[in-house]
Amino acid sequence: MIESLEDGAAAAGGANKLEAGAAGKVFKIEAKVGQSVSKGDTIIVLEAMKMEIPMVSPVDGTIASIDCAVGDAVEAGDVLATID
Question: 0.85 exceeded by the pTM?
């Protein structure tokens, strides 16, 4: 399920993208759309080669969209979430 803020903030040029750092499977989603996060907070956890890899927020902001679901297979560079 892909979630986003209703006002379309994720489409704005100011959104920061959280991209997968490696190919794997979405193991856990730790944040919700609209939640405030700080730089370094874990947003999504990927499972790759039997290891859990946290994908952390690159900036302080608000989660604008979650672009993946638990169990999704992702490739390195895939957008997992956007942060305003």
Answer: no
